[in-house]
Structure formats: structure tokens, C-alpha cells
Design brief:
The chain is an alpha/beta fold. Helix content is 31%, strand content 18%. The chain has two domains: 221 residues, Rossmann fold, CATH 3.40.50.150; 42 residues, no CATH class.
């Protein structure tokens, strides 16, 4: 049995290859059963991933059953898995590659979104997979984790009666097990990893991602837990205050405390005294330098105007207002009022616009 944290290596492929056909045709059930979404898996994925564009990588995608949901949100689904048997069913549903979630064949800061859907219990080294997901996410990109609920699902939980879930010993210990209350699931066939809730959330945070939003699925006792976390954007250090124990933050009440220990602290306070209490504004050259630093840290290329394609829309053409229908209607109404004596027509003796106050 693999230990928690072990590499999800070549030896782990065979069990999933063996159950691939059963998983696709029996475990997932017919299409109408999947569409009913009884556990709220698709609902959680739609809620936390949201609409977007660009590639969305699913780690341990299995047979690619969630690709349609991702595509329906506007993303371009891409999936990796170690099991050739699973990927055989995924072909045609999304772009696929055979790869290990702990060693993604993707460059740093490349993707706007990464998802893990009902897969973390299949990856003993899930913390390493999360670190890989954080690596390939671009700054500001989102990770969406949708998985079995660690508090109510596992070898320690008996869900034979959905209205009265029995929780036994074992929740607090991270482990790999085939223990299951049913013989119709994946755990009893290939085993599953268990991560207690704090361990799961800490693994996401330790990967350098910022926890952002949560959701649950299944009733009456949740069976699914979903988490959205985001890769923070790099912040320039110049013009900011860093406290010894609070990290980097923008200038403000929290940043001001203890700022004398930072090399920019004295300069900051001197600027405030010399400018009547207002912080000194950075000049254009310094702002441009900061912008370039941010671009370098984000891995963006320099802007090249020659690479920008020409505009394809037709520029607006000037319009003579005298040729518009509205102008003709206004003139006709004005002529009617003059003809019927409602207003006087301007003349050299009376050049001012007609008004009812003359009556």
C-alpha cells in the first residue's frame, strides 16, 4: 500500500487501468444519472470555477467526465492522468496527456485555471500535486478542488443509512485504505487516501495559494467539499512597508507599525514631514520601473507594437446631421408651428428664436 505523500508513480497505473471500463460504464452510470448531479459535484464546480476562457487543466482527469461542464463555462478543458485505460475513455471529451499530477509537463506561470475533481483521494502525494498546480498557475489564476468530504467520507464513515452517517475512529489520521461501507465504490477496489480537513486546507495554503471560497454538495449530510484558492499576484517591494512579522503590505495603519526597522521606513516618514503629512508620490520614471518589474515577475514579454494586429473594425464615418431623419422631422414640426401661427419665424428685425413668452 502506498504511504501518504508517496510518489504516484508507474506502479499506481495498473489498478486504475483495470477498473477503467467498470468506472466509465457502471460506476458513473448512464448519462441521465450523471446529469441529475445527485452529489452536487457539477454544481460546486460551476459555482467555484465560474465562466472564463483559456486552458483549464484537470489533474487526474480520469475518463474526462467533467470536461463538458468546464467547456460549458467557456474554458478549454485539458486533462492529465497516469492511467491509459482511463484516458482511453477521455479521448474525444478533452485534450489529454498521460502525466503524473506530481510532475506536470507544463511550464511555470502558464495556466489561468487548474481543477481537481473527485481525484484527491486517488493521489497519495496530493500536497505535492497541489504544489505543482500552484507552480503552473499564472499569478491571479485559480485552483478549484472538488473532492469527497474529508469529515463525512472515508474508511471511518458508514454511509449505509444516508439519514444517519456513523463516524468511527480514524478521521484524524491521514492514511491509505481499502476499507469501505460498500462494495460498489472505488475505494474497496483500488484504495483511497484520506486527508483530515485541516491537513487538506493546510496543504492548499502551504502550496502558496490563498483560500478564497468554499462549497458543499450532497444531502442530507454533505458528501462533497469544494474549495477555490488563488495564486497571488506579485507585489512590488518599493514604496511599500514590510514589518518584521507581518510580511509585505501596502502602506497603511498595519504597515506603519514597526516600519522603522525596514530600510524604507525612515525615508517614508521623512517624506511625510516634508510634504505636509502626505506621502511623496513616485515620479514617472520610478512608476515605469515598477511596472517593468511587475511584468518581469509575472513572466510577461515586453510589449512590441509591431506584433499587434491591425484593427479589423470599420472606423466611424462622419454624418451630416441635416441628412438624418430626426433633423427632417424637427424641421417639419417647426414649419407646421410657423404656418399655424403658434410661433413667429425669425427675421432681420426680430432675429431672436421664437418663444411663447411673446404672446
Amino acid at each position: 500500500m502506498p504511504a501518504i505523500g508517496a510518489t504516484f508513480n508507474e506502479a499506481m497505473r495498473a489498478p486504475y487501468d483495470e477498473i477503467a471500463d467498470w468506472y466509465e460504464h457502471e460506476f458513473l452510470g448512464p448519462q441521465d444519472a450523471r446529469a441529475a448531479d445527485p452529489l452536487g459535484i457539477s454544481h460546486c464546480l460551476r459555482e467555484l470555477l465560474g465562466e472564463g476562457s483559456g486552458p483549464c487543466l484537470e489533474i487526474a482527469c480520469g475518463t474526462g467526465v467533467h470536461a463538458a461542464t468546464v467547456a460549458g463555462l467557456g474554458w478549454s478543458p485539458v486533462g492529465i492522468d497516469v492511467s491509459a485505460g482511463m484516458l482511453r475513455h477521455a479521448r474525444g471529451r478533452l485534450v489529454i496527456a498521460m502525466a503524473d499530477a506530481e510532475r506536470l509537463p507544463v511550464r511555470d506561470n502558464a495556466l489561468p485555471a487548474v481543477i481537481s475533481v473527485m481525484a484527491h483521494t486517488d493521489i497519495p502525494g496530493y500536497p505535492a500535486a497541489l504544489r505543482e498546480a500552484a507552480r503552473v498557475l499564472r499569478p491571479g489564476g485559480a485552483l478549484v478542488h472538488v473532492g469527497v468530504h474529508p469529515c463525512f467520507c472515508g474508511g471511518f464513515a458508514d454511509r449505509s443509512d444516508p439519514a444517519a452517517i456513523l463516524i468511527g475512529p480514524g478521521y484524524r489520521d491521514g492514511h491509505w485504505t481499502k476499507a469501505s461501507w460498500t462494495d460498489k465504490g472505488v475505494r474497496d477496489k483500488v484504495g483511497a487516501a484520506h486527508f483530515p480537513l485541516p491537513g487538506l486546507l493546510n496543504a492548499i495554503s502551504d502550496a502558496g495559494l490563498v483560500l478564497e471560497r468554499f462549497a458543499e454538495g450532497g444531502a442530507p449530510t454533505p458528501m462533497v467539499l469544494a474549495v477555490r484558492a488563488r495564486k497571488p499576484r506579485p507585489l512590488p517591494t518599493s514604496g511599500m512597508l514590510v514589518t518584521p512579522d507581518a510580511g509585505t503590505s501596502r502602506g497603511g495603519p498595519m504597515a506603519a507599525r514597526g516600519s522603522n526597522e525596514h530600510e524604507d521606513g525612515p525615508q517614508f516618514h521623512r517624506d511625510r514631514r516634508e510634504h505636509g503629512g502626505a506621502a511623496q508620490h513616485l515620479d514617472d520614471d520610478r512608476l515605469a520601473a515598477l511596472a517593468e518589474e511587475e511584468r518581469v515577475e509575472a513572466g510577461l514579454d515586453d510589449f512590441d507594437p509591431d506584433e499587434v494586429p491591425p484593427a479589423t473594425d470599420t472606423p466611424p464615418q462622419p454624418t451630416d446631421i441635416r441628412e438624418t431623419e430626426a433633423y427632417e422631422e424637427e424641421r417639419a414640426e417647426l414649419r407646421r408651428q410657423i404656418d399655424e401661427g403658434e410661433i413667429r419665424e425669425p427675421s432681420e428685425r426680430d432675429p431672436f428664436p421664437p418663444t411663447r413668452y411673446d404672446d
